[in-house]
């Protein structure tokens, strides 16, 4: 770092000399920083690191949160740009731009908040520090001091430890004495008061460094001398004096620099002649895209090979005055380092007002008059043309001016000829000409650059010929690509985005590059409706038969720019807008075009493409499947070798996402990576796992562990151990909830499978493997398509055993890590760890007893907590799977430690899966077959209400969500979470009358709703939304419906039973019966009739059979079968009383095995049956539910709903009631 100034004690008196010493010390230090390129670059990199900015990704700063970072970054860049040897106008402008940009983050709230993850105190401190550099370059030493002190006041820690440690040590610390941040702030505050006081009393004076306050003057490298401007310290008179000095010096230099007129004409004649020859020899149309190696055309060492460009280069170089003489002379006269042609418009205006001119500079005066006219034209018209440069008729000028005008006219002709041609060579010449002009100082050269840009912009905005627009766009793109400062000039001239958009829509692909470089806001990009055109640019990229990987080109290509803009369109907006844009590119034809980019792309295009593909995979399972089928992931894996962390990050994210597919397909991708990789990817991933942090470390561990499974036998345990350790550490010790959730999700599914939508299906595979077959129970589980083919994947079992074996070999630490995950307060983490233990337990069950005992010792107690009623059915079943596998063989004795509540939970689950039933039997055996106590206490856990919809007339579960129908025709969908709290997800009203009933399709994909409006509506959850996919009209109102296969059975308002087939044709069944209730089970339909008879319909052949005859009584109307329920091979029917019969015995005769007696004058309106209880709602007490023990037929209590019960549903040990008041209540037996 630069050497600090001498120490200034904070105890010095506040006299002017001490303040001047403070000012000089700070300014000397700032000047020493900006004068040393290495120190400047090191400081800049330190700042970028603190802001977590990747320099190559700073072209787009769209979000409001990122605007502060963007302004700070570009403010620093603008300071650096102002240090280049350009005209004072450009330097002043860039310093002002930098000042404006830095002021924005400087105004942020300083304490307690962050912006884009960076503390505001850091942003504000850095902003004030760089504002001090701006003030220093502007020559205001006092303001430099004030800005620096303000940065210390905001964040002493940043300045002391990172930005200016040496200076801060000298200013604020006494050797050997420690000071806290608050003490440093107090010292800085005193310094600032003194400096402010000095600024006030010295108002109107120039604040320059005093030679008495420093031992040695600052020696700045020649490269940075022109940047130190003293413009703020000079009056208009001084400006005029400097202007005269410039004229004298220019005159002296031009005398020796002018080129002979004949020689120059000869050069241009040769130039035109060569043009004609080349035109006749090459008439082919130029490429519309930038060649990725185009930068070779601009190699300065190659300029001599082109006679035309060399001629212009010589002309420009020869017309340049001697630089050393000018700088030395002006430095002596004004302490300001101003170049020969480096004059601002202010200088020229001052010269015009200055009446006295010296006779010996007449020629130069004439030339300056020409320049003045040119500037005037620029000021009044806003653009420059060659016609404006040729004005001046009637003005008496010297013969030298005439020759000079002739030279400019020849140059004009030269440039015009180039601009009108779309040949690639001519377009390259435009860029080289602009580069040469860009390297010269002075108004004259700036105007020539303006001429080139103006003519190109005019052609783009006004030409009706596509070839002209294309040529102009290509030339402008090349100029900007190799001269990034030109983009600012283009933006100042008002390049219209709509013109670029129109050009892009006309297939002028270079417009995509210009749009990207101009950096419009996401809203502006969206308003241009560019997405189809951008997709066309990407899709039109020529593809090769195989993938080739090239390094990033120095110039941006249209496909790469298009990809980057597409990336913005699918990430920069709200979820709905991003989803809309994703929907536009989510088709096989568009994805095919996107993937073609990767076949011949470079690393930059691979990065943008990977980001877009990740979003497409997250959006739709169809995209994920297409990408898997048509993409070779090896080129993306090669990005892991990059030295650029951003490339490594996106490669890890892409590989992690593309492996979230059905297991057999994921194994094929892993085999492809391992087979085609030209490097040891496991070693690379191991380094990523050790060196990276957060999500990317987990991505690396996930991929590494999966690749390690393919080794048979394992090549190295270090890969497995490091990957497993990284995942378990994140679960156990991570302070970031998102990182903890991600690691738990990876562990839960790394041994299982995903759906093509990327949804984790490991839990579903485990539950189906454990015996879950009942569709009503399956519908209690969320987000599972039970008919999905991925659940039948034969590769899951073998994979699960292999990876489980490797993880278990890491020892007891794995069980301890998962135990901590089970204890997590985050329910998602606990559930994911339960899934991981469940698939690990499959391999544990095959291991030695010592392994089972070890797992039981650590995990069993925590797992048993997931069995309790009221928890999600998925969690209870997974806990059953774990316990069943742990207790296999001699491990069964571990069950004796179960509490009575755990045993009761297993009994209640015994009807759901065979595993729960086996565990129930085992505990029954272990406890000497004694009768187990049944808790009859119920607690209300749920109450949902939304006024204005009337009574709750129907309830059902579908994909883990509770559907409720109302008397006003609305359908509401509730999410009842693990805490038994409810959230209304959707409220849709498409039925015109009351919703009377629900049913779930046999596949579990659809919900059917019947209504009094004589329609049946079929609902599906499509892309996160509930949609009515079909409406079936009937002739009568619907009272009940039941779906079985492709048929729908309906009970109408007139108690008639109809069957609707797949063609939606309706036919009557049981024509002689008035039907009241029905239920489908075991391939049959059981129907309760008004005459108290029970009918049976075999669904396979539609055979009708009566299994219970009607009651022989003259009061038949009082005994209709209001409910029929099938539970555990038992048929329950209710009228005035309840009867239970074994379905197997119904083949011979109907003999009730159990009965609940009737109550006088009361009918049973609704009935629900679970493992331990029967719930009855009677007409004599419509507000309550009676609770009966199922096995002993004892009445043990009642539940009050508060108003008339209008619907009843039971599931997962929870009984739900819908009431006339529109309230849904739920109770759980303890």
| Overall radius of gyration | 41 Å
Q: Averaged pLDDT, please?
A: 75
Alpha-beta content class: alpha+beta
Please describe the biggest sheet, giving its number of strands, its sense, and whether it closes into a barrel: 4 strands, antiparallel
What percent of residues are in strands? 5-15%
Shape summary: elongated
| Uncertain residue ranges | 1-14, 56-62, 206-261, 270-312, 318-401, 542-554
Distance between the termini: 71 Å
Number of helices: 46
Kindly report the spatial arrangement of strands forming the biggest sheet.
3-30-29-28
The residue fraction in helices comes out at 40-55%
Number of strands: 30
Give a quick rundown of the structure.
The chain is α+β, with helices and mostly antiparallel strands.
Can you walk me through this structure?
The structure is a single chain. This protein has 1230 residues and is α+β, with helices and mostly antiparallel strands. Strand 8 (995-1000) and strand 9 form a beta hairpin. The radius of gyration is 41 Å and the shape is elongated. The two termini are 71 Å apart. The relative contact order is 0.04. Residues 1-14, 56-62, 206-261, 270-312, 318-401 and 542-554 have low confidence and may be disordered.
